[in-house]
Amino acid sequence: AQSVAQPEDQVNVAEGNPLTVKCTYSVSGNPYLFWYVQYPNRGLQFLLKYITGDNLVKGSYGFEAEFNKSQTSFHLKKPSALVSDSALYFCAVRDIVEGGYNKLIFGAGTRLAVHP
Amino acid sequence: DAGVIQSPRHEVTEMGQEVTLRCKPISGHNSLFWYRQTMMRGLELLIYFNNNVPIDDSGMPEDRFSAKMPNASFSTLKIQPSEPRDSAVYFCASSLRIQGAPNNSPLHFGNGTRLTVT
Fold first, then answer.
1. Considering only CA atoms, which of A86, A89, A109, A77 is closest in space to residue A5?
2. Within an 8 Å CB–CB cutoff, is residue A51 touching chain B?
3. Touching check for A100 and chain B: CB below 8 Å?
4. pLDDT tens digits for B49-89?
5. Does the beta-carbon distance from A101 to B55 stay under 8 Å?
6. Nearest CB to A43: which of B31, B103, B109?
7. Distance (Å, whole) CA B40 – CA A13
8. Model confidence over A28-60: pLDDT tens digits?
């Protein structure tokens, strides 16, 4: 079965420093990977996705993610963190289902706290 | 576009009562998903529809839960009777599935309904 793991419950970063939120995956076949962000009392918002092609994927709000097949990882990164980036981040993988529906399996989430 | 609209935003009810959560997907989207979020279990997929037809309801926890999609612009999730352990945030999400093409469209989430069952 497809799955993703987010090994860190929380990541703390000082504003202006680079940030990394980790995600590893386990899939059969080619992975379709996603990152979403959730702000308080809001739904999840799509940040970026990896389907195929370049291993470095750029997304919204200056975020990017690096797909690493040998390490089965898809870490989310940003060169310079902002206090407003503080939120809950979810990694997700598309499940393999008959019919090719976009059924996503989410990780447990990582809370990012950016300190001024 | 107003995005996915869910109502109510908050629902407080007593154990045993019927609860109905509502969702209006983004116009033109043909796939709709219901998720539940709790601290203990994270995000769980309950059921999803394509072209108003339920595709997979294996995530629905019990027979007390039911979902319908009578048309392309409306879906409901009903819990009858409700129990305290149903307390969670329930999210609806929609996306566009193109027949015959790899489906990598992102999900668009509503802001959720926070359900508290006392």
1. A109
2. yes
3. yes
4. 999 999 999 999 889 999 999 999 999 999 999 999 999 99
5. yes
6. B109
7. 25
8. 888 899 999 999 989 999 999 998 888 999 999
